[in-house]
Specification:
- The structure is a single chain.
- The protein is about 25% helix and about 35% strand.
- The strands form three sheets. Strands 1, 2, 3, 4, 5, 6, 7, 10, 11, 13 and 16 form an eleven-stranded mixed β-sheet that branches. Strands 8-18-17-14-15 form a five-stranded mixed β-sheet, with no helix packed on it.
- Helix 2 packs across helix 3 and helix 5 packs antiparallel against helix 6.
C-alpha cells in the first residue's frame, strides 16, 4: 500500500492507495489518523504494521468513496484544482549516507582534490553519515529544490529513503539529495555546505510500507531531468548495487544516537550526471523508484 499526506481546503489528510490503484481518504474515515506518523503509532501500539491498521479501518467502512490514483496525482500537479501533496512523513530529522555505490565513490573521487578519502570510506566498515534536513526545511513533491548561487556544478541525487519508527525501518519513499559538487570537490570538510542549505532535500510522493516493498535491495531507480520541455539527462541504477544495505545503514545510524520517530534516511545514489552537466533554474527533476512512484521538483537558485 502507498500512503500520501496532503492538504485539502487547508486541512491535512492521509490517504491510502490500494493494490487496485484506488485511493481512500483515511482521515475522513478516522479523525485520529491525521498523519502517517499516527498510523505508525497505531501499528506500534497494536504490535502490527500500518497496512494491517489500514485494512482494519477500511473493513469498518465498506462502500466508501474512492478516487483513481492517476486522477488523484494528476490533480496534485501545479496549476490543477486538486490536493496539495506534502512530504509523505513528518520527518523531524532527515539523514543521509554517502559513498554507498561504486559509481558514487568514483564520481566523488573525480571531483575531489583528496580522492583517497572516498576510497577509504567505501572500503571501511563504518559508513559515511551526515545530517541532511529538518521537517521545516524539507520540500514536498512539486515544490522547488535549490542549487546554491555560490556553486557552479550542481546535481540532484536520486535515492531510496527509508522511514523509521522506534529506530527500525517501517517504510520507504523517494529522496532527492541535492548536491553542490563544486563545494564538496574543493575540500571534503565542506560536505555540510555542499549538502545542507535552503531547499536541498525533498521526499515523496508516497510512503510505502516495509511489507509492500518486499526486498528494498531490488528496486530500479530512474532519474530524468527536463530542460525547456526536452530530456536533458536520464540515468538508471538499482538498489541491488548498494554496497551496504538499508538494515546495515540503520544499524549504524542508531548506534549511540537516538533518533525521533519518523526520522527518514537517504541511502546514497548510483546515478550522477556527467561532469559536463550542471542543473539550471527551471529544470524539472523526476526521480522514480519501483513500487513507490515519482518525485518531481522544479529547480531554483537559492
Amino acid at each position: 500500500m502507498r500512503y500520501y499526506q496532503y492538504l485539502q481546503n487547508s486541512t491535512k489528510h492521509v490517504c491510502v492507495e490500494d493494490d487496485s490503484g484506488q485511493v481512500t481518504d483515511l482521515t475522513v474515515l478516522n479523525s485520529e489518523i491525521g498523519s502517517t506518523l499516527d498510523l505508525l503509532k497505531a501499528a506500534s501500539i497494536t504490535g502490527s504494521d500500518i497496512d494491517s491498521v489500514t485494512r482494519g479501518i477500511l473493513a469498518a467502512n465498506e462502500g466508501v468513496t474512492t478516487i483513481n490514483s492517476k486522477e488523484f496525482l494528476s490533480g496534485a500537479e501545479p496549476g490543477k484544482d486538486g490536493v496539495t501533496l506534502l512530504p509523505p512523513i513528518d520527518a523531524p530529522e532527515v539523514w543521509a549516507f554517502g559513498v554507498t555505490y561504486m559509481d558514487s565513490m568514483r564520481e566523488r573521487q573525480a571531483e575531489s582534490g583528496s580522492p583517497d578519502v572516498y576510497a577509504k570510506v567505501y572500503d571501511a566498515e563504518r559508513p559515511e553519515a551526515f545530517f541532511k534536513s529538518t521537517l521545516e526545511r524539507l520540500q514536498a513533491p512539486f515544490d522547488e529544490v535549490g542549487i546554491r548561487a555560490d556553486s557552479d556544478w550542481n546535481v540532484p541525487e536520486p535515492e531510496l529513503a527509508f522511514v523509521t519508527y522506534g529506530g527500525k525501518i517501517v517504510g520507504y519513499t523517494c529522496g532527492n539529495d541535492m548536491s553542490s559538487r563544486t563545494i564538496e570537490g574543493e575540500n571534503p570538510l565542506y560536505l555540510p555546505q555542499a549538502k545542507v542549505y535552503d531547499k536541498s532535500a525533498a521526499l515523496g510522493p508516497a510512503l510505502v510500507s516495509k511489507e509492500s516493498i518486499g526486498d528494498p535491495q531490488k528496486l530500479a531507480v530512474t532519474l530524468v531531468i527536463e530542460r525547456d520541455g526536452k530530456e536533458a539527462f536520464k540515468g538508471e541504477a538499482n538498489t541491488a548495487d548498494m554496497k551496504r544495505d538499508c538494515e546495515y545503514l540503520v544499524d549504524w545510524l542508531v548506534r549511540h544516537n537516538t533518533i525521533p520517530d519518523g526520522t527518514s534516511v537517504m541511502t546514497g545514489t548510483g546515478t550522477i550526471p556527467p561532469p559536463e552537466f550542471t542543473l539550471a533554474a527551471d529544470d524539472i527533476v523526476h526521480i522514480t523508484i519501483d513500487k513507490i512512484g515519482t518525485l518531481t521538483n522544479v529547480v531554483t537558485v537559492v
